[in-house]
Amino acid sequence: MSAPVFPDLAGTTALVTGSSRGIGAGLADALEAAGVTVLRHGSPAHAAAEGLLVADLATPEGVEELARAVAGRTDRLDLLVNNAGVELPARLAELDAAALSRTLEVNLAAPLLLTRALLPLLRAGRGRSVVSITSIHDDVPYAGNVAYVASKAGLEAATRTMALELAPEGIRVNSIAPGAIETDINREVIEEMGRERFESWIPLGRVGEVEDLVGALLFLASEASRYVTGTRLLVDGGYSQALLRYGLDH
Q1: How far is CA 245 from CA 11, 68, 74, 143, 176, in A?
Q2: Which pTM does this prediction carry?
């Protein structure tokens, strides 16, 4: 994967949660291509990769386990990417309490608890950047996925609040809100809905690729964004604007 050039990233260290596959793996690859030492995390269900830091972020104990593992690998952290997430679609009438709890724990509680636990390493870092991967649906909800939408909206609000609290320490906190990004996991959904139909909803006329997120992440990780904090960067090909106009109900 090619990556824009941000020379100040070379020699820095990052943690990318949920980076054993999908968007997280692609972002980790791009950071490594930019000269970043990347600590990769995966859940116990995706623990085959060598060197992966394995922890279940659905529990506070799992978050602490990951934080200890990171501290065992490095004495500073320049970038934290809160990417790990789960999506368990259900309408309110069919919403399962256990699924709601897991969604909120992984998507909302874990980024907060992990960022808190890693503050000593972030304070020691050079870049001092936290980037959370949210979703266009933190702002544009759609029926049939109430827990996921709520978790991403909460993470977006938490991102802005953390930005206020951590700014005096020089730690910047921002988010990237992807639209429809094609990965091995969601390709089946895109094909099921009909690729041409799906792409007709996106003003730029195509489903996004993981590589489309790379420039946004490297920008927010680098000194190029040294005066940027509390910002939500949409990377969606204009998809959210179309949804605001026409709506979407799965």
Answers
A1: 44, 46, 47, 15, 22
A2: 0.93
Ordered by start, the domain boundaries in the chain are 7-182+210-237
As a whole number, mean pLDDT of residues 186-214 equals 86
> CA-to-CA distance for 8 and 21, rounded, in angstroms?
26
d(CA 145, CA 233): 22
Please identify every residue annotated as catalytic.
Answer: 148
Q: Which single residue is written with the structure tokens 């659905």?
A: 58
pLDDT-derived band of residue 191, with 50, 70 and 90 as boundaries? confident
CATH class of 7-182+210-237: alpha beta
Q: Running DSSP on this structure, what letter comes out for residue 12?
A: -
Q: 67-117 pLDDT, tens per residue? A: 999 999 999 999 999 999 998 989 999 999 999 999 999 999 999 999 999
Contact partners, residue 243, CB within 8 Å, separation at least 6: 136, 140, 142, 201
pLDDT in tens, 18-38: 999 999 999 999 999 999 999
Cα→Cα distances 141→46, 87, 180, Å = 29, 14, 14
pLDDT digits (tens, 9 = 90+) for 46-58: 666 678 999 999 9
Contact 198, 243 (CB under 8 A): no
Tell me the C-alpha to C-alpha distance, in Å, between residue 250 and each of 70, 111, 145, 216.
39, 28, 9, 29
Tokens representing 171 are: 């730690």
| C-beta of residue 179 within 8 angstroms of C-beta of residue 213 | no
